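Continuing the batch. This is chain 6 of the set; chains 1 through 5 are on the previous pages. Same settings as before, nothing changed between runs. Recording input and output for traceability.
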Amino acid sequence: MKAKRHTNTKNAIKSALTRLLHDQAWETLSISEISQAANINRGTFYLHYKDKEDMMNQLLQGLLDHVSNHLANIDQQTSWQPNILPIIEWLEKDFDFIESVVKARPDYIEKILRDYLWQLIQTYPSLQQYIKNQIPLPSDYAYEVFIASNISIALHWIKKGGKESPEQVSKMFFK
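Output for chain 6:
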């Protein structure tokens, strides 16, 4: 029962943050405002997070952990595009949150995505080989091109409001 209450509280905080970021800048947002919008006490907020940076980091880490768990179970011998599609479909379900965070903190999101994609490249030899085959540059440059182009695609899709389908977006990542 406690775990369910814990999850419900975190979901309420995330929903409140999403709503607030549509109308207010991240820098001006207070924990009191988040707590009030989530219908919780400030003390309850602090049971889950140290501060608003910790909250943002944990919420985004939850998204990245889900993606990592999915990628850990893929067949690396198949094309990467079909493996990316379920991830984008899953992210689309949480689009309001993702969109609000990207609009509120674009540089922060770009850094997280850059670090995450670099980690993926280092983790998956098949992805390294795919990049080397697709981008005829020295490896370090090819990786940078891959990272920069995929960050740009993801952020542009989000800033446009997710107009293209997950299928269309997943194909763009591997063109």
